[in-house]
Amino acid sequence: MLTVYGVPGWGSAISEVMLTMAEMPYHFVDVEGFDSPGPQRDVLMQINPLCQVPTLRLDDGTIMTESAAVALMILDKQQKLAPAVGTPQRLLFQRLLIWLVANVYPTFTYADYPERFVPDAPEQLQNACIAYRKTLYQWLDRQLVGPYALGDTVTLLDAYIVVMRTWGPRAAWFAENTPRLSAIADNIAQLPALQKVLLENNVITAQIAN
């Protein structure tokens, strides 16, 4: 069985949702606190010296990191979770998958730990990253179709959207400024097969799940 090392509600939640979409069972190891010295960091560093979440340990012991790599691994087993090869939608899927990781993810790295990069002006860097992230989400909103990211069929891109909507700038901002993205997240949050994993990652509340 796969093992996912992560923290509820963090980036590892995206991999958990994708694995659940693909009906691939996994064991979850909570390493909350890994980003500071301590036992949880020690646990994670034993398998991944770069100390990242998600970190996946595959059945054969291979270590995998990076959510986009996890997505591609899943697609090798469940091709239905992306548009058909050779279609324009497939190209858009590939573009947006890499775009999210290459463009949006860094804004969290810098904004969440600004003192690591600009010790003399952490607040300035944080504010700049958050403002830039908003423009990225607004651009993404214009690329989406609905009711899911690329139309009528759920893809792995939707796992990113439903989780990232819970991060800054939070759901109220998304509803007002990126209505397509917000509606897609709502639709994914209502899928029965995802209720458990979304609840465990604080993406939805118990009231919504019921």
Describe this structure in words.
The protein folds into 2 domains: 2-79, Glutaredoxin, CATH 3.40.30; 82-194, Glutathione S-transferase Yfyf (Class Pi), Chain A, domain 2. The chain is globular, with a radius of gyration of 17 Å. Helices cover 56% and strands 8% of the residues. The model has no long low-confidence stretch (mean pLDDT 95). The protein has a 4-stranded mixed beta sheet with strand order 2-1-3-4, with helices on both faces. A hairpin with a 5-residue loop joins strand 3 and strand 4 (63-65). The longest helix is centred in the middle third of the chain and has 25 residues, at 88-112. With 210 residues, the chain is α+β, with helices and mostly antiparallel strands. It has 11 helices and 4 strands. It starts with a strand and ends with a helix. Helix 1 packs parallel to helix 3 (67-77), helix 4 (88-112) packs antiparallel against helix 6 and helix 7 (157-164) crosses helix 9.
Name some characteristics of this structure:
2 domains; 11 helices; four-stranded mixed beta sheet; Glutaredoxin; globular; Glutathione S-transferase Yfyf (Class Pi), Chain A, domain 2; alpha+beta; 210 residues
Strand and helix layout:
Blueprint: E1 2-6, H1 12-21, E2 26-30, H2 39-47, E3 55-57, E4 63-65, H3 67-77, H4 88-112, H5 114-117, H6 122-143, H7 157-164, H8 170-177, H9 179-189, H10 195-200, H11 206-209
Parallel strand pairs: 1-2
Antiparallel strand pairs: 1-3, 3-4
Helix pairs in contact: 1-3, 1-7, 4-6, 7-9, 8-9
